[in-house]
Amino acid sequence: MIRRFAALAFLGVGLTYFAAACGGGTAPKTAQVTAGEMPEGESWTGVYFHPLFGYLHLVEEGETVAGRWKRADGSAWGELTGTKSGNLYHYTWTEHKVGLVGPSANSTGKGYFVYKPGKEKGVAELDGQYGLNGDEVGSDWHCIKQQRMQSDPKSINGDTGGMAPPAANTWQ
User: Fold this and answer.
1) 54 close to 71: Cβ distance less than 8 angstroms
2) Distance, CA of 120 to CA of 59 (rounded, Å)
3) 131 close to 157: Cβ distance less than 8 angstroms
4) How far apart are CA 59 and CA 40, in angstroms?
5) Number of neighbouring beta carbons within 10 Å of residue 34
6) Cα–Cα distance list, 47 to 7, 70, 123 (Å)
7) Are residues 128 and 114 in contact, defined by beta-carbon separation less than 8 angstroms?
8) Pair 115, 128: CB distance under 8 Å
């Protein structure tokens, strides 16, 4: 009887650890941030730069903000959309890897940005994080608003700009 109880207890503990290791019961990680006032005269619409993610083009329409980016090395492009509240923007995102097809071609997740005046007068910054899948946090994403660039999200897509190989029978 004691051996049977010990075996069942061991099995129960093992299954608990297995479920925890496989993500069973783990809630998505969410940002613990509070919205503040949007700085006077500022808008989410604009182009923002990050050394890895390249130029992020955002457009604000009502309570919605949507945008696209293309990585600085051209390896991927992405799109995000979400809602704003004051200087806080929560979004969902999808990134498409150039040249890949199938399930591993796309990554998805959630994130947030806080809009704030930059250290230099007149240069705004986005300070936030993004997470994979259901997580909203995990990696930092900090961008600087570009002063003389117009936002054009439609200019960003999967076009590789002539990097495709030539069609058959066209070699010279």
Assistant:
1) yes
2) 23
3) no
4) 18
5) 10
6) 61, 12, 12
7) yes
8) no
Q: What are the two backbone dihedrals, phi and then psi, of residue 147, each rounded to the nearest 5 degrees?
A: -80, -35
Residue tagged 């897509």 (tokens): 157
Q: What is the pLDDT of residue 6?
A: 44
17 φ/ψ angles, rounded to the nearest 5 degrees: -65, -40
Nearest to 139 by CA among 129, 147, 125: 129
pLDDT, position 20? 43
| Each residue's pLDDT tens digit, 127-160 | 999 999 999 999 999 999 999 999 999 999 876 6
| Residue 38 CB coordination number (10 Å) | 16
Q: Structural domain boundaries of the chain?
A: 46-155
Let me know: does 87 contact 36? Beta carbons within 8 Å.
yes
Q: Please state, as a whole number, how many other Cβ atoms lie within 10 Å of the Cβ of residue 24.
A: 10
* pTM flag (> 0.90): no
Q: Rg (Cα) of the chain, in Å, rounded?
A: 22
